[in-house]
Structure formats: C-alpha cells, structure tokens
C-alpha cells in the first residue's frame, strides 16, 4: 500500500469533511471543547493533559480508537484513549458525543471516526515528548466482503499520510506511530464500542 492518498482520494475526503462540518444538523465540537471521562461507572471527568503526562511517566503506550453507531436518526461517537503497558496495566479516557445527526453514508461516518482519532493523536503529539508512542486503531475491515472493507485503503492512507506506519510492517514495539485495522483495532472495536 502507498503511504499517501492520490489527489482524488484526498479531495474526496476533504469534500466529505466539508459537508459534515457545514451541515447545521451536525454539532461537531472543536477538540478543545471535548469532555473526557474515565471508564468507570459512574464516570468522572478527566483533565486530558494530566492523564497523558501521568501515563507517559509510567512508560505507557497510547492507543486511540473511535467507534460510532446510529440510533434512530442520531449518531453516537465514542473515542477511546487507552494508556497501556504490559507491566503496569493501563487506564482509559473516553469522549462521547451523543447528539450528532445521522450521516448520509457509511463512508462519511468512517471518515468522521478516523478524523476524531486523528484529532486526538494530534493533541497527544502536542503534549508528549518526542519519544512518546501512539497507536491509532481504525474501525475498518481488511476484507472487501464487509462494507467497511471498501474504505480501508482510503482511511489507512489518510492516517499513513500523517506519518504513521502499518502495523503489518512493524517488527518491534519501538516505532513511534503505528496504525491498526480490523481484526487488530481493539481500541475502536472493543473499547470505544462499549460506549456507543
């Protein structure tokens, strides 16, 4: 797979994002307005910067994934930020939007999931030292027999265009930025999915 999108794919993604952002029925918030909570019940509000610094100091790797579901005419998005390492366990921060309008296509919804994951990664990049490790998990299938599989190349290319490498090409845990997809995108399909 090429690391970058061709111009038609890039323009297509930008067009879809523009449609979503300018639609008055979608109340997409700026990242600095997102509220993050822990994974407990009842959830507690977290300071995201403190969460990141504390978990970086514990030697944890950051995994980010977003999932969405349509309920009647509304779409619910949940973005999970998981800080984990095998020796010390981990913690989860969740951001959830409950009142976005229904999207006109699966492609639009998957692009928004990927954008939410990227926005979280961009924030992590601004907080983490250069050696911080980020793993992005996109909720797209590897096989074309599944509906989301039709968009895998486009969405993975969107992330690889931001400097991430495919987990299929990584031999060790030393890479800073890695992208995962199904069946290995557990941050999206197992963690964020629990909050949609």
Can you give a write-up of this model?
- With 196 residues, the protein is of the alpha/beta class.
- Helix content is 32%, strand content 26%.
- Strand 4 (74-85) and strand 5 (89-101) form a beta hairpin.
- The longest helix is centred in the middle third of the chain and has 22 residues, at 106-127.
- Can you tell me the residue ranges where pLDDT is under 50 for at least 5 consecutive residues? none
Main beta-sheet strand count, sense and barrel state: 8 strands, mixed
User: Helix tally?
Assistant: 5
Shape: globular
**What is the count of β-strands?**
8
The helix/strand class is alpha/beta
Q: Can you write the helix and strand succession as a string?
A: HEEHEEEHEHEEH
| Separation of the first and last Cα atoms | 31 Å
Percent of residues in β-strands: 25-35%
Helix content: 25-40%
List keywords for this structure.
alpha/beta; 32% helix; 26% strand; eight-stranded mixed β-sheet; 196 residues; single chain
């Amino acid at each position: 797979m090429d690391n970058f999108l061709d111009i038609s794919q890039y323009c297509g993604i930008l067009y879809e994002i523009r449609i979503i952002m300018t639609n008055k029925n979608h109340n997409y918030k700026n990242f600095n307005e997102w509220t993050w909570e822990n994974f407990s019940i009842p959830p507690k509000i977290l300071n995201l910067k403190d969460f990141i610094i504390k978990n970086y100091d514990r030697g944890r790797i950051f995994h980010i994934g977003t999932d969405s579901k349509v309920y009647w005419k509304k779409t619910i998005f949940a973005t999970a930020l998981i800080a984990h390492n095998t020796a010390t366990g981990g913690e989860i921060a969740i951001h959830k939007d409950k009142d976005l309008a229904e999207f006109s296509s699966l492609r639009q919804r998957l692009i928004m999931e990927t954008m939410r994951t990227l926005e979280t990664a961009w924030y992590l990049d601004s907080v983490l030292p250069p050696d911080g490790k980020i793993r992005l998990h996109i909720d797209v299938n590897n096989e074309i027999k599944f509906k989301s599989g039709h968009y895998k190349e486009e969405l993975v290319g969107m992330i690889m265009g931001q400097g991430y490498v495919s987990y299929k090409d990584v031999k060790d845990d030393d890479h800073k930025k890695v992208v995962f997809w199904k069946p290995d995108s557990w941050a999206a399909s197992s963690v964020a999915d629990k909050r949609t």
